[in-house]
Amino acid sequence: MENVENKTLKEVSVLTIGMAVKLTGVSAQTLRAYERFGLVLPMRSNKKQRLYSFEDIERIKEIREGLKKHKIGVTALRSMISMIPCWSIKGCSESDKTNCAVFEGDISPCWTYKHHNNFCADLSCRDCEVYRLNYNFTDARETILKELYRGNR
User: Fold this and answer.
1) How confident is the model at residue 89 (pLDDT cuts 50, 70, 90)?
2) Could you tell me what percent of the chain has a pLDDT over 70?
3) Which end of the chain is more exposed for a tag (fewer CB within 10 A), N or C?
4) What is the chain's alpha carbon radius of gyration, rounded to the nearest angstrom?
5) Which residues pair with residue 52 across a beta bridge?
6) Could you report the per-residue pLDDT of 119-133, keeping only the tens digit for each?
7) Distance from C-alpha of 129 to C-alpha of 89, rounded to nearest angstrom
8) How far apart are CA 38 and CA 85, in angstroms?
């Protein structure tokens, strides 16, 4: 269960999938697909029920609008956000990079992996700035371009 200390009401996961459907207009099947593709990381109750925060609801709405606006699918979005150079943003050491599947060029967002023996092993992906970028197309694109440009200097 989620530790709610130091979290705002917007960040606490209390909404069931049924409530998320009503608040976003996105079907439960689509919400599960977003989770499968790593676009949303809902919390789980002790009984494994998905729980969403109001922040997750905003993320889901932004994802849906971005997909429609840019006329791309979930797979394309997943590929795009997997290019966010998390190792650069997080300032990973060379040994952290060596122990990281994402750095090795995998095609899934970094927060979809179990991190072992590296900087992110003990961190919450839901609270990570890299995960928080994933749903905003403009921010994700700018981050990718900025990091690519910085690497070419």
Assistant:
1) confident
2) 87
3) C
4) 16
5) 15
6) 788 888 888 888 877
7) 8
8) 16
Using DSSP's 3-state secondary structure scheme, residue 51 falls into strand
Whether the pTM exceeds 0.85: the reply is no
CATH of the domain at 62: 1.10.1660.10
Residue 80 shares a structural domain with residue 153: yes
Q: How far apart are CA 81 and CA 133, in angstroms?
A: 8
Helix locations, the chain, DSSP H? 17-24, 28-36, 54-70, 74-82, 86-90, 94-98, 129-133, 137-151
DSSP 8-state secondary structure symbol assigned to residue 22: H
Contact status, residue 40 vs residue 63, Cβ threshold 8 Å: yes
Q: Are residues 10 and 58 in the same domain?
A: yes
Q: Which of 88, 15, 83 is CA-nearest to residue 45? A: 15
